[in-house]
Amino acid sequence: MIGVPYPVTDTIGAYTQLDLAQQWLQQYEGKRPLYVCVLGFTETGLIPGISAAGATPESRKYTAIADAEFLVQGPSHSAQYPLPPLHQGASPVFITRAVLSGQDIPIWLFDAGLPVAPAVKAIDLGGQPARCLSTGAAQTRETVKQLFQQGLHWGTVLAERVKDGYLIVSECVVGGTTTALAVLTGLGFKAQGKVNSSYPVCNHDRKWQLVCQGLAGVRETDPWRVLAAVGDPMQAAIAGLLLSASQRCGVLLAGGTQMLAVYALARAIAHQDNIAWNPSQVIVGTTRWVAEDPTGDTIGLAEEIGTVPLLATQLSFAASHYPQLRAYEDGFVKEGVGAGGCAIAAQLYQGWDRVQLLGAIEALLAEYEQFH
Fold first, then answer.
1. If we measure between CA atoms, which residue out of 214, 159, 226 comes closest to residue 186?
2. Is 370 exposed, middle or buried (0-12, 13-18, 19+ CB in 10 A)?
3. Domain boundaries along the sequence of the chain
4. Which CATH architecture has domain 6-371?
């Protein structure tokens, strides 16, 4: 379903829960955010044809690690883990890095379970890479609980640091839209056919086949059971971080399908375990390539989950000089490492319009091409 956004500002559109969206944006306009990225890995991402975030299964093992290095260091001759080649388009990390460096926004990276440690500083949350969700035993309950508790702790710490600002909370998990579909389905939501992917046409049938395999032995909607069976490490960590941080500051969940799943998961855990949180402090922010993806239904999914405002940057690459950016307009690549949320923050914090944002992204891409 393609939705038409309500234009809250020149560069930000709201698709659900308009009043809550406007209240949140008004509260945090001009406030300095802090950027958080939780990195994780699931063997689901190695399945051929499941993800375009890396041209081969082997390269997808290093996508999150390479993104983390690029976020912190930018273009470099000496990258230990270079950005993996894509079939089409440029990594969304260019959008995120352009905003973070251009507006001097602090970066906090967390390793929730990677096959290899990043080459840049990332706080180890004590997780493990998840097995493929089709096994129905992706993670142990002990690991899931550990990651959640770490998330609760760091949500409090980061909220105190950002004071009256907000957290941009992002992720990098290859194959994560499939684990998102699995968790949402396990929690009882009608999510089939609604998620997005990094392909121009979403591979719904392939995702659904894996989800049905993984959930075959799961009879109850207990969030801990579902998360252990078919989830990924990032989900537990951000669910905890979201619940604790929302009591003290704003939280912009920067992503599409994956962040809607995290929101639903956090709410389910809060309800079941009687954990206090403040949902009015939380929004989901993505790109219009996700919100208006004609091969998914992000808006319908947000409405199915309910209560959460879905916003998207109205950034366009149609007029870009670079074919790898124009590829976004054809459905190649759509979102990642909080690109949409950072684009929203770029206007909210320092008033960048779409022309300034595009200029910063193209300048970064030009710098990158000098090294490659």
1. 226
2. exposed
3. 6-371
4. 3-Layer(aba) Sandwich (3.40)
The encoded tokens of residue 138 equal: 């992706």
The predicted model scores a pTM of 0.97
- Least Cα distance to 39 among 87, 132, 108 occurs for 108
| Rounded Cα distance, 229 and 215, in Å | 7
Residue (of 165, 60, 164, 169) closest to 109 by Cα position: 169
Burial 305-321 (b: 16+ CB within 10 A, else e): beebbbbbbbbbbeebe
Strands 12-14 and 6-7: antiparallel
| pLDDT at residue 1, as a whole number | 44
In this prediction, residues 300-311 reach a mean pLDDT of 96
The three-class DSSP label of residue 185 is helix
Strand bridging mode 34-40 / 12-14? unpaired
How large is the average pLDDT for residues 118-147? 97
The mean predicted confidence, pLDDT, of the chain is 95
Non-local CB neighbours of 251 within 8 Å, separated by 6+ positions: 166, 167, 169, 242, 245, 281, 282, 283
Summary count for the chain: helices (H), strands (E): 15, 9
Mean per-residue pLDDT, 286-303: 95
> If you average pLDDT over residues 345-355, what whole number do you get?
96
